[in-house]
Design brief:
Blueprint (H helix, E strand, L loop, with lengths): L1 E7 L6 E8 L17 H6 L6 H10 L7 H10 L4 E7 L4 E7 L30 H13 L2 E2 H4 L5 H6 L9 E4 L3 E2 L9 E2 L10 H12 L3 E6 L10 H14 L5 E5 L7 H8 L1
Parallel strand pairs: 6-9, 7-8, 9-10
Antiparallel strand pairs: 1-2, 3-4, 5-6
Helix pairs in contact: 4-7, 7-8, 8-9
Length: 272
């Protein structure tokens, strides 16, 4: 559509055509120089970009309108073997991306992998039913002693107390009670800020148990007793001395002491 503009002379008789104006859109060639930002005119002349969301909306709207909304959405979501052609245009390049999707990925079959070897028989803990185990446990109960094997719930108690192949039972005696004043998260021993007082007869009980077992090597450990002024070092020393006097020096004692809060003089007290 064109519009003709007239100019009327002052005398009112002559008509002079001045200009033609067209309302139709004009096509303008735009040159884009790589590396330079586009001018405002170039930005207006660039082809419109369609986002991924707009493409999906158009595709969903083009499906059969007679189907229900849920079925249409499910059909669109499944997209069984449908090729999606998305045209991406810019001022510098134009390309087509094709995507092929399947209805559903194949499910992996559940089951044990064939390349996994079975666990060896020795890795499983044996039940504590041997005669040595029963004898050692009875002695501990009669004397009212505590062992770290039981208090810490060691899974190897059946093997150690049972004696194994050489029929020699071993146990680690835990002195100064069965309640610790510290609460380490990795330990199963009972904890309390105010544990029961120390048993003054414990050194004699430990010596009698070791003598009954006929051991020449014994391991002693203990709970932490931060409620004691000497952290329990004096009590630990009495147990060691009583063991050596009972066995007349024919015994080796391995002492696994607490940290005594870093007081080295308490370590010397146990060692002497």
């Amino acid at each position: 559509m064109h519009r003709f503009i007239k100019s009327v002379a002052r005398d009112g008789h002559s008509v002079v055509p001045i200009r033609f104006l067209s309302t139709a859109p004009q096509k303008v060639a735009v040159t884009v120089t790589p590396g330079l930002p586009p001018s405002p005119q170039q930005q207006l002349e660039q082809p419109k970009k369609f986002s991924r969301l707009e493409e999906l909306r158009k595709k969903l709207a083009s499906l059969d309108e007679e189907e229900s909304g849920v079925e249409t959405l499910q059909k669109f979501a499944m997209n069984d073997q449908v090729n999606e052609n998305i045209e991406i245009q810019s001022s510098e390049t134009s390309m087509t991306v094709t995507k092929t999707s399947s209805a559903a990925p194949a499910k992996k079959k559940k089951g044990r992998r064939k390349n996994i070897l079975p666990k060896p028989s020795w890795i499983r803990a044996q039940p504590a039913t041997s005669d040595n185990y029963k004898k050692l446990r009875a002695t501990v109960r009669d004397l009212g002693l505590a062992t770290v094997c039981e208090e810490a719930k060691c899974p190897n108690i059946g093997e150690c107390w049972g004696g194994g192949e050489d029929n020699t039972a071993t146990a680690t005696i835990m002195i100064m009670g069965d309640t610790c004043t510290r609460g380490c998260s990795f330990c199963a021993v009972k904890t309390s800020r105010a544990p029961p007082p120390l048993d003054p007869n414990e050194p004699e009980k430990v010596a009698s148990a070791v003598e009954a077992w006929g051991l020449d090597y014994v391991v002693l450990t203990s709970v932490d007793r931060d409620d004691q002024d000497d952290q329990g070092a004096g009590h630990f020393r009495e147990v060691v001395q009583r063991l050596k006097s009972k066995k007349q020096g024919e015994i080796l004692v391995e002492a696994l002491t607490p940290d005594f809060r870093g007081e080295l003089d308490l370590v010397d007290l146990v060692a002497t």
